[in-house]
Every structure is written in C-alpha cells, then in structure tokens.
C-alpha cells in the first residue's frame, strides 16, 4: 500500500467513528432537537472524512470529483432539512403542541 492509500483508509475509519458517535447520540439524547444537533455535528465531518478517504483511494480523478460533488450536495441537503425540521418543532412547541418522539 502506498502512503496515500494508508491515509485514505485511516480517514474512512475516522468517518466511521464519527457515524458511530452519531448513532450513540441518537440513542442517548432525550428530545428531537438534541438528536438533530447530534446528527448535524457528527455527520458532516464523518461524511467528509469518508469522502476524502475514498477520493484518495480512487485511481481516476473524475471519480474523486464526483465524490466531492456528492458530499457538497449532502451538506446542502443536511443543512436545509435540519433547519426546516428545527423550525417546525419550534413552532409546534410555541403553539402548545407536543413533538412526537419515536
């Protein structure tokens, strides 16, 4: 293995650790906003580590570019959906509604 392959493999496993911490946060935290915070904080660097690690393992630069493009789309979608969900929960709490935790 080349040094870049070692770095790529280590980054992929580091990303897996970030995703595992997200799963623990989802199980541990009591309400939806805390769970949303755990997802938003750990998934973005986790996905980043996995994408950069996989990009280093690719032979074709176009494949690496596609991975980075997918990462950018996922970051945008994550931020947008987290904002929308948090806004809906805040409005439901303000109007006296209860959030559903399942």
Can you characterise this structure?
It is a single chain. The protein has one domain (3-94). The protein is an all-alpha fold and 102 residues long. The protein contains three helices and no strands.
Secondary-structure blueprint:
Blueprint: H1 3-28, H2 32-57, H3 61-94
Helix pairs in contact: 1-2, 2-3
The residue fraction in helices comes out at: over 70%
Question: pLDDT below 50 for ≥5 consecutive residues: which ranges?
Answer: none
Share of β-strand residues: under 5%
Average pLDDT works out at 88
Q: How many β strands by DSSP?
A: 0
Judged by helices, strands and strand pairing, the structural class is: mainly alpha
Note the total helix count. 3
In whole angstroms, how far apart are the ends? 45 Å
Question: How many whole angstroms does the radius of gyration measure?
Answer: 17 Å
Shape: elongated
Main sheet: strands, sense, barrel: none
Our count of domains comes out at 1
Task: Give the structure's gist in a few sentences.
With 102 residues, the protein is an all-alpha fold. It contains three helices and no strands. α1 (3-28) runs antiparallel to α2 (32-57) and α2 (32-57) packs antiparallel against α3 (61-94).
């Amino acid at each position: 293995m080349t040094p870049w392959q070692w770095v790529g493999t280590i980054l992929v496993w580091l990303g897996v650790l970030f995703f595992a911490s997200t799963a623990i946060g989802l199980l541990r935290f009591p309400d939806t906003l805390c769970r949303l915070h755990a997802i938003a904080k750990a998934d973005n660097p986790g996905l980043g580590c996995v994408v950069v690690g996989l990009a280093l393992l690719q032979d074709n630069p176009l494949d690496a570019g596609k991975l980075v493009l997918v990462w950018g789309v996922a970051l945008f979608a994550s931020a947008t959906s987290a904002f929308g969900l948090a806004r809906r929960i805040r409005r439901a709490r303000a109007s006296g509604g209860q959030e559903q935790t399942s």
